[in-house]
From TrEMBL:
The keyword Hydrolase does not apply. It comes from Acipenser oxyrinchus oxyrinchus. It is found in: Cell membrane; Membrane. This is Sodium/potassium-transporting ATPase subunit beta. It holds the Pfam family Na_K-ATPase. The chain crosses the membrane at residues 36-62.
Amino acid sequence: MSNKEEKPADQNQSTWKDFIFNPRSGEFMGRTASSWALILLFYLVFYGFLAGLFTLTMWVMLQTLDDNAPKYCDRVPSPGLVIRPKTLDIVYNKSDSSKYSHYVQHLESFLQQYNDVDQDKKQPCVSGTYSIQDNETLPKNSCPFKRSLLGQCSGLHDPNFGYSEGKPCILVKMNRIIGLKPLGDPFINCTIKKEGSDFNMVYFPATKNFDLMYFPYYGKKAHETYVQPLIAVKLMLEKKDYDNVITVECKIEGSSNLKNDDERDKFLGRVIFTVKITE
Ligand SMILES: *[C@@H]1O[C@H](CO)[C@@H](O)[C@H](O)[C@H]1NC(C)=O
Ligand SMILES: *[C@@H]1O[C@H](CO)[C@@H](O)[C@H](O)[C@H]1NC(C)=O
Ligand SMILES: *[C@@H]1O[C@H](CO)[C@@H](O)[C@H](O)[C@H]1NC(C)=O
């Protein structure tokens, strides 16, 4: 019984062995040595060619790139608006400094790059005109924006940026977009969204506008010392406004090529944030 089964198993094994190496024909895995050599050579040449082609096209494409600016911008985008401190819900107890110190520290560290000593080293620019520097000279000159322009919101006179007195400062800035030249005279307009609440807002600089001399921006590498212009808004809240969630919307206005009412993107040219102060 067992003999009958062993025979075919034996045969099977021998054909399997023959497949691995057949001593009669000298074939290894069904191919002769020269056949294997040819097939290996073919794949070597084939993949070598593919690798070479890939390297060549990559190299050619990299030659056409500019270190300083993206090659393709599918649309001339409109910038988003952002605020500092970096939050959309400012909530704190004005009698408890531990509840607002992180906002104050954030503003202070953000404004370090705007320190007057650094900004004074820069070449002054002509207000109201674009700083066009389209020639090859690098690095590009960047126009000074001194934090002292932010007056009561500069942190120079009031190191608490108004947070301790319940009249907090918010900094508004526009995201950088390479090559953007705003038309007209872009300015920031903040409004209180909630019916019934009403308080003053004081802007620094008082003109509320982003001077055209800060545009266009040439990119991180070419425009190393560039700083974005800022508008500070001081919310002059009073006791009656405490404990309420106040919604404020700031929009960029006065410029026909800066969008501020896109249905799908609510940060395009505008920013909505809430403030709630307790005491
Ligand atoms: C605010 O902080 C003060 C002082 O710590 C405390 O007395 C008061 O109860 C706090 N107010 C609220 C609404 O938590
Ligand atoms: C590039 O432009 C700047 C300002 O317009 C000018 O001062 C500088 O000489 C120009 N450089 C070259 C190489 O043309
Ligand atoms: C600011 O926005 C409000 C509401 O959209 C508008 O009524 C007001 O006229 C704007 N202010 C300026 C100076 O454009």
